[in-house]
Amino acid sequence: MREIRSALIVGAGAIGAAIASRVYDADTSAVAICASGERRKRYIREGFIVNGKRYFFPLADPAPSAPYDLVIVAVKSYHLDEAIDEMRPYVGPSTIVISLLNGISSEEILRAAFSAASIPLAIIISIDALRVGNKIDFESAGEIRFGFEKNDPKALDDGVAAVAGFFDRHGVQYSIPENMVKVLWFKFMINVAMNQWSAVLRGSYRCFQKSASARELVAATMREVIALSDALGKGLVQEDVATVFATTDRLNGNGRTSMLQDVDARRKTEVEAFAGVVVEKARECGMRAPINEYLLLSIKAIEEGYGL
């Protein structure tokens, strides 16, 4: 049976560092961080502080002798091209690449860039990690859901089973859904609705747990994504709206979405990967997505206001 012994984290932000800490706590030799240039120097100098514990994770050798068994990509969507260039020396024909990027297009891009590697679909859900500088704090480490488009639990792909074994050994929560396409779109719907409205309203999860008006804005936006899913055959249904709220209502009310964190820190957001993609795909289907058209312009205006 195939076994994964080495994992590389590409993107040591809130999610990447949280996962790295879980793996490292179980086996210090099982994980490394991909970093070059000034980031590499900073990681060596400062390390990471995860839930109050300082870590100096191993850094990948700039001239590796062999590819990694598993590469976990956890960068922002707009940094994917740069990440692909940086991770090329570490990916070989036997490498499995798991993308935890927001949106619905990263696997397609990675499959084109690394045609020989094994690249299942993946998301991470219910993680509440917050990064400020090199300090990362989280209460919920979330759950990675991954697998190919269709997965038979009685006959898993060998690589998918190997990743599951690695996660089991290192305390990483995961599941392998039978219909991974719908799961990918489910997470996309959450990001399109909750992330974007949190950035516009400057609201933590409590805002969407307690405010009936905020919940209706999120619900209407999710229904827009469901209409697009219907047109594209991706499997979302109206009942998924209630499922999203059941999920987010369990989160720490003080938690903030990644897009709200970006806006608060005056960083570039992933609005193009969310509203931008919905608007574009709706247009291709002969539809309109007016709520996402509004969100696209609103969040771009917020970004443009950083320098004013």
Structural account:
This protein is of the alpha/beta class and 308 residues long. The chain folds into two domains: 7-175, 3-Layer(aba) Sandwich (Rossmann fold), CATH 3.40.50.720; 181-301, N-(1-d-carboxylethyl)-l-norvaline Dehydrogenase, domain 2 (Orthogonal Bundle). It has helices at residues 14-26, 37-46, 80-87, 106-113, 158-169, 180-201, 205-210, 212-232, 240-248, 258-264, 272-284, 290-304; strands at residues 7-10, 31-34, 48-50, 53-55, 70-73, 96-99, 121-127, 130-132, 135-137, 141-147, 174-175. The radius of gyration is 19 Å and the shape is globular. 46% of the residues are buried. The model has no long low-confidence stretch (mean pLDDT 95).
